[in-house]
Amino acid sequence: MYHRPVLLEESLDGLSIQEGGTYIDLTYGGGGHSAGILERLGKGRLIAFDQDPEAEDQALKDKRLLFIRGNFRYAKNYLRFHGIKTIDGALADLGVSSHQFDVAERGFSFRYESEMDMRMNQDSEVKAADILKNYSEGELRDLFRRYGEVKNASRLASVICSSRQIQKLDTTTGFLEAIVECIPEKNRQKYLARVFQALRIEVNQEMESLKEMMEGVSGYMRKGSRFVVITYHSLEDRIVKNYFRSGNMDGVLKKDFYGNVESPFKPVNRNVILPGAEELEQNPRARSAKLRIAEKTD
């Protein structure tokens, strides 16, 4: 494994794996969660998804595992293609793997000199550099505000649009030099993390993919099966929370004639599960992780 799995035992316990069942790991990554599922699965079946070719290269050799290289937003289509009728549980760890952050040429981190890439799927056409080059000032402002909650999003967008008229913004170094006047002296790391997060989300269409995935996968879950999701920022956590609570992405509760909430899920954990002190000491990147678990009710 080139990525330390976050909240491993907690997510496996939450999945409540039944020997002989059919489960899906929607974010294979380094294979840590999949390996844990297989240990508990017995003679069951595991379908794992990942659009990163490096994840496919690392895939475990196990006859119970079917690895599918593809975006999890199309999970329902892949399940249909492979003749899967129902599943007994699904797990998704929505974080970028440590390996992806640490490989400079992938462009996920502002700590390294690299191309402004950020594509999870290397076959995709749009890179972060393309967004910086082609988006209007308004579009840039909106994506930094929406996906990064960047406080000076308007100023940042204006500086980018001015800078790209005289220099290319296709490398991390060039981009950081161009926006230096926007970066606060205090909390520099946090600010840049938000900026890069916003670009990564836009490049990979992460919010749209998450919504499509959750709606598609839930249609394959049998009554009593578990949906386990680990989130890393408030935007995706809000989507997961709303869907588990109400069955829709907006969190609007629908009630029957008697006032009972109508939802295909019921949350298993009332409060989010967070990494413990020991895990945080071993893996500081897990500090923003939040685990939510829900059970299918119909």
UniProtKB/TrEMBL annotation:
Key words, A-Z: Methyltransferase, S-adenosyl-L-methionine, Transferase
HAMAP family: 16SrRNA_methyltr_H
InterPro entries: RsmH, SAM-dep_MeTrfase_MraW_recog, SAM-dependent_MTases_sf
Protein name: Uncharacterized protein
Gene Ontology biological process terms from the UniProt entry: rRNA base methylation
One Gene Ontology term, aspect cellular component: cytoplasm
Family stated for the protein in its record: Belongs to the methyltransferase superfamily. RsmH family.
NCBIfam families attached to this UniProt entry: 16S rRNA (cytosine(1402)-N(4))-methyltransferase RsmH
Heme found in the keyword field: no
Keyword match Transferase: yes
GO molecular-function term, one example from the UniProt record: rRNA (cytosine-N4-)-methyltransferase activity
